[in-house]
């Protein structure tokens, strides 16, 4: 099993450009998440999807949109990139069993907005 | 005030030392407590998981939760250079936002040989 995969690994954008970050998991998990990680700020939740067909805003949703394409895939879109969106983006998934909330993370996408 | 507070360090210790990492939190509804380890330029991976108060031991790692003080700790015994990483605490209330985790900022640990 590959676990959680993310593409691309690294991207450079100019201000105003758009792009979509892709995430897929092969663990049959119901829930998927998008986080951003900035120095000194820890992980901040952008959007999450508790199940296929549902999405909800997290802590820092402004400037982003998401699509839960199917149970495996959860994409994050930047419609008009801004330098403040320079960050490392992590996708995660979880099974939400009765006893634990283990989230499994992908390797991350490093985004630089000039 | 963030719901989860964690000293970012950095923390630097010699090999073999006992390391203590801590987080405090403000939301008394948190019931599930986790420690994630993140190596440089990698995604976080789950290290320890505890439910409610008490201790949990796994090899050289011990996680403690004190709900009365809203304080959690991770102890690493006989620390190794391979333990050098950023350690993030995380917690969940399993409330309306089922599965949502609240993370601390992470503590950067370096174990030198």
Protein architecture, described:
- The complex is a heterodimer of chains A (114) and B (113).
- With 114 residues, chain A is an all-beta fold.
- In chain A, 0% of the residues lie in helices and 52% in strands.
- In chain A, strands 2, 4, 5, 6, 9, 10 and 11 form a seven-stranded mixed beta sheet that branches.
- In chain A, β7 (64-68) and β8 form a beta hairpin.
- Chain A is globular.
- The mean pLDDT of chain A is 91.
- Chain B is mostly beta strands and 113 residues long.
- Helices cover 0% and strands 54% of the residues of chain B.
- Chain B has no helices and eleven strands.
- In chain B, the strands form two sheets. In chain B, strands 2, 4, 5, 9, 10 and 11 form a six-stranded mixed beta sheet that branches. Chain B has a five-stranded antiparallel beta sheet with strand order 1-3-8-7-6, with no helix packed on it.
- Chain B is globular, with a radius of gyration of 14 Å.
- Chain B starts with a strand and ends with a strand.
- In chain B, 35% of the residues are buried.
- At the A-B interface, β5, β9 and β10 of A face β5 of B.
Features:
heterodimer, A: 114 residues, mainly beta, seven-stranded mixed β-sheet, four-stranded antiparallel β-sheet, 11 strands, B: 113 residues, six-stranded mixed β-sheet, five-stranded antiparallel β-sheet
The count of β-strands of chain B is 11
Structural class of chain A: mainly beta
Q: Structural class per helix/strand content of chain B? A: mainly beta
Range of strand content of chain B: over 45%
Number of helices of chain B: 0
Q: Measured on Cα atoms, how large is the radius of gyration of chain A?
A: 13 Å
Biggest sheet record of chain A: 7 strands, mixed
Helical residue percent of chain B?
A: under 10%
**What is the approximate shape of chain B?**
globular
Extract low-pLDDT stretches of chain A. none
Order of helices and strands of chain A: EEEEEEEEEEE
Q: How much helix is in the residues of chain A?
A: under 10%
Label the overall shape of chain A: globular
């Amino acid at each position: 099993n590959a676990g959680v995969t993310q593409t691309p690994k690294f991207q450079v954008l100019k201000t105003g450009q758009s792009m979509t970050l892709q995430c897929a998991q092969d663990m049959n998990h119901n829930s998927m998440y998008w986080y951003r990680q900035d120095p000194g700020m820890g992980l901040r939740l952008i959007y999450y999807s508790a199940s296929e067909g549902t999405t909800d805003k997290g802590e820092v949703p402004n400037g982003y949109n998401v699509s839960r394409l199917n149970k495996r895939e959860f994409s994050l879109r930047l419609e008009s990139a801004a330098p403040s969106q320079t960050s490392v983006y992590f996708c995660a998934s979880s099974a939400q069993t009765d006893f634990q909330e283990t989230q499994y993370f992908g390797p991350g996408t490093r985004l630089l907005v000039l | 005030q963030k719901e989860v507070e964690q000293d970012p360090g950095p923390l630097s210790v010699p090999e073999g030392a006992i390391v203590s990492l801590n987080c405090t939190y403000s939301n008394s509804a948190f019931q599930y407590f986790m420690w994630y380890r993140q190596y440089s330029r990698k995604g976080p991976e789950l290290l320890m998981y505890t439910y409610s108060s008490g201790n949990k031991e796994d090899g050289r790692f011990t996680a403690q939760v004190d709900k009365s003080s809203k304080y959690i700790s991770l102890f690493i015994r006989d620390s190794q250079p391979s333990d050098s990483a950023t350690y993030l605490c995380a917690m969940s209330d399993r409330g309306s936002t089922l599965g949502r985790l609240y993370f601390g900022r992470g503590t950067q640990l370096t174990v030198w040989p």
